[in-house]
Design a protein that fits this description.
Aminoglycoside 3'-phosphotransferase, Chain: A, domain 2; transferase; seven-stranded mixed sheet; three-stranded antiparallel sheet; 2 domains; phospholipid metabolism; phospholipid biosynthesis; Phosphorylase Kinase, domain 1; 354 residues
């Protein structure tokens, strides 16, 4: 197993299999942590992910702070996720205190440090105290000063959907999936039309362009009770984007990381306005602007957030079609796509007419 340096990163030219991954993980681990060679180790499997496999390793009876997380990319995800940019994201955010250290890469993933705590439960997304912590943390992420190379090109919300569509086959290889797709799901042609409608309406709107997480679902939020804080993980979709997309996407995720999200949990206007005020006040504080948040600002952002929530539904609806075609993970991506696209259609007129 060769160890070489890519862009000053430690790299191992080996693939870690999804099944029986522990022997290869240990080989890499002992190169990174040779002092662990004579110690007993234990593995921890994280089952919340629906596009990658996550395996942690730590010393028996050791601290979770020392756990090393191995992230194995899902099958063919490199077709629609820029894995090099993901590594840049991790390094960029680690340097600013928002992500753990990147230890090494391997052919189908990377390993990094671990953020102790627990992932949130769906019902906690609307908790008054925790939602305020999330709003403040996202404001700090959005306030990060970006180097010039992060600001190249257009915001990713629309361009990523276009990329997804460009690699989405016209027909599934699996006849059963193709039949379900034709009967249950918005066609590719119709999705393209809807994307054009949204891009024409929202593409040039006056929304701040910032570094966004873009996937702030419940299992990507870590609660550290000791510090009374939250942290965000899994920045694989992180990119330069509309801030309103990041927030609207987060509100969509109040429905839960399940095949059939409960969209009745989407936060109402009163909740959103309180959340958005906390967000704007924290962002002004971090940036030192001293801005006083007005009702007009809140109302404007409320409209933008809900309209970009529609873009979020298209984004993940098309993403799920790709996963249905390529992923080996046991999850009904077709049904998930249907549910996201149906919710888009259900909310479309309401949100665009705000």
């Amino acid at each position: 197993m060769a160890d070489k340096t890519l862009h000053k990163r430690r790299h191992f030219d080996v693939n870690i299999p999804f099944e029986n991954s522990e022997p290869v993980i240990v080989k890499i681990l002992l190169e990174i942590k040779p002092e662990w060679s004579k110690e007993k180790r234990e593995f921890k499997y994280f089952t919340e992910g629906i596009s990658n496999k996550l395996v942690g390793c730590m010393l028996q009876n050791g601290s979770e702070k020392d756990l090393i997380m191995f992230r194995l990319y899902g099958n063919r995800t490199e077709l629609f996720i820029d894995r090099e940019q993901e590594l840049v994201n991790v390094e960029f955010l680690h340097a600013r205190g928002f992500a753990p250290k990147l230890y090494a890469t391997f052919e189908n993933g990377y390993c990094c440090g671990f953020i102790p705590g627990r992932t949130l439960e769906t019902e906690e997304m609307s908790d008054e105290h925790l939602s305020a912590l999330i709003a403040k943390k996202l404001a700090r992420v959005h306030a990060i000063e970006l180097p010039s190379d992060f600001k190249t090109g257009e915001p990713c919300a629309f361009s990523m959907i276009e990329k997804f569509l460009s690699v989405l086959p016209d027909k599934f290889d699996d006849d059963v999936k193709q039949t379900r797709y034709e009967k249950e799901i918005l066609s590719k042609v119709n999705v393209v039309d809807e994307l054009k409608l949204l891009k024409d309406k929202l593409g040039n709107c006056n929304v701040p362009l910032v570094y966004c997480h873009n996937d702030l679902l419940v299992k990507n939020i870590i609660r550290n009770k000791e510090d009374d804080d939250v942290s965000f993980i899994d920045y694989e979709y992180g990119a330069y984007n509309y801030s309103a997309f990041d927030i609207g996407n987060h509100f969509n995720e109040f429905g839960g990381v399940v095949i059939d999200p409960d969209y009745s949990l989407y936060p109402n206007k009163d909740f959103q306005l309180k959340w958005l005020r906390i967000y704007l006040e924290e962002k002004a504080k971090v940036q030192g602007t001293g801005d006083v948040i007005t009702e007009e600002q809140l109302e404007k952002l409320y409209v933008q957030v809900n309209q970009f929530a529609l873009v979020s539904h298209l984004f993940w609806g098309v993403w799920a079609l790709l996963q249905a075609n390529f992923s080996s993970i046991d999850f009904d991506f077709l049904l998930y796509s249907r549910n996201r696209l149906y919710e888009y259609l259900r909310r479309k007129d309401e949100f665009l007419n705000l």
